[in-house]
Amino acid sequence: MPHILIVEDEAAIADTLIFALQGEGFTTTWLSLGRAALEHQRATPADLIILDIGLPDISGFETCKQLRRFSEVPVMFLSARDGEIDRVVGLEIGADDYVVKPFSPREVAARVKAILKRMTPRAAPEVAPVLFVIDPERVQISYRSQPLSLTRHEFRLLQCLLEQPERVFSREQLLDALGVVADVGYERNIDSHVKSLRAKLRLVAAQAEPIQTHRGLGYSYSPSHA
Ligand code: CA
Question: What is the CATH number of domain 132-225?
């Protein structure tokens, strides 16, 4: 679920936002200072930031300006006055949306949803097809534009890992994805599929290690190692 960082110094306003956003299934973090928000975003990036303009330390404008030096995260401004909004619109601060107080928390939640929806198609084509392209109909996967020659099991295994990057799958879960019933030797069975899969991937990129081993846990697909 997307994580929303709320930067607002008035607890009552933050509370209504938290309530509305959590009602839509988002997780939230609430901070009341601009500098703390910047630090937080560096350490644990949120998917969207709701940023009050009038903050006790540095303004929302300044926070956004500094944020843009290291992050493209969508920002929605909260403004106390229409006059402030002129600046949001007039200056190119890099905001994605804004609302004027008093606002309806439900409307804010709906706009947050809309912004994130807009973002998704932008992000997806950049990440996935560059390295791996899955063609389920032809039961084929290309890696760095080269079609891999995979067995049916290897295809299912790789597809399962690719669909959820960075998720660690246990051998049992992977076996499930293959549609094979677990028997005594299933763990080694999966290991040998992974081994032959890795050999095929190395033929394309010798130094890469897109399938990572997690000792005692299982395997994951790591885009940063691909
Ligand atoms: Ca304020």
Answer: 1.10.10.10
